[in-house]
Amino acid sequence: MPAMELAGNFFLVGLMGAGKTTVGRTLARHTGKTFYDSDHEIERRTGVKITTIFDIEGEESFRAREKQIIAELCQMQDIVLATGGGAILAPENRQVLASHGTVIYLRAQIDDILARTKHDKSRPLLQTANPRAKLEQLYQQRDPLYMEIADVVMDTSCQNVNTLVQRLEQRLLTQQP
Ligand SMILES: Nc1ncnc2c1ncn2[C@@H]1O[C@H](COP(=O)(O)OP(=O)(O)O)[C@@H](O)[C@H]1O
Ligand SMILES: O=C(O)C1=C[C@@H](OP(=O)(O)O)[C@@H](O)[C@H](O)C1
Ligand SMILES: [Mg+2]
């Protein structure tokens, strides 16, 4: 069965740098669904970058914006949504994601994440003296929350995004009702 026949919404969760935005965009293209990214949506609506929101308003205000956007996007049909890594912190977000689509947890190795985000300044939580320690702490805190709502857990150590998405589509086909 071609991937085009995959029904419903797909929501990607996982740590920063796991590949949610990249994999989500490719999955949407393959399945003919509309792609959204909650961070991009926040940036589009506010007209500023995520880093600026963290700098000026702080993380709490960012989380409030994120919650609003996720609640709205989850009402849509046939979308692929890449969430931000911390979206699952709010119980309301976990509930709305779990009940409106198939949740895909992209589970990445810390070493891979560090390599992928090394030169990137767009993630405020990683602008620290010790990003490895920060990622380890986030993993401890968040892995149980990702697992709580995941329908599919996907290892992302595969370095070829197209191959990764093909494997993911095979997994999703086996989940269809
Ligand atoms: N499977 C992969 N293998 C190698 N690089 C990847 C993979 N997935 C994503 N990347 C790269 O890692 C970086 C972070 O990916 P991104 O999609 O922004 O992650 P997220 O949205 O989860 O934070 C990007 O530069 C992207 O090209
Ligand atoms: O993990 C987090 O708390 C965050 C992840 C980021 O998204 P990505 O996971 O797409 O990098 C972005 O929402 C913000 O910087 C906070
Ligand atoms: Mg992203």
TrEMBL record:
Its UniProt pathway annotation is: Metabolic intermediate biosynthesis; chorismate biosynthesis; chorismate from D-erythrose 4-phosphate and phosphoenolpyruvate: step 5/7
- Any keyword Transferase? yes
The record's free-text note on cofactor binding? Binds 1 Mg(2+) ion per subunit.
- Which residues hold ATP? G17, A18, G19, K20, T21, T22, R123, Q159
* Residues at which substrate binds: D39, R63, G85, R142
Q: Which Pfam families match?
A: SKI
Residue sites binding Mg(2+) per the record: T21
Provide this UniProt record's keywords sorted from A to Z: Amino-acid biosynthesis, Aromatic amino acid biosynthesis, ATP-binding, Cytoplasm, Kinase, Magnesium, Metal-binding, Nucleotide-binding, Transferase
The record's EC number reads 2.7.1.71
Alphabetical list of CDD domains matching this protein: SK (cd00464)
Subcellular location per UniProt equals: Cytoplasm
TM annotation in the entry: none
Q: Which cofactor does it need?
A: Mg(2+)
Catalysis: reaction(s): shikimate + ATP = 3-phosphoshikimate + ADP + H(+)
Q: What class of enzyme is it?
A: transferase
* Gene Ontology molecular functions: shikimate kinase activity
**What is stated as this protein's family in its record?**
Belongs to the shikimate kinase family.
Subunit structure of this chain's protein: Monomer.
Which NCBIfam families does UniProt cross-reference here?
PRK05057.1 (NF003456)
Query: What does the UniProt function comment say about this protein?
Result: Catalyzes the specific phosphorylation of the 3-hydroxyl group of shikimic acid using ATP as a cosubstrate.
The protein depicted here goes by the name Shikimate kinase
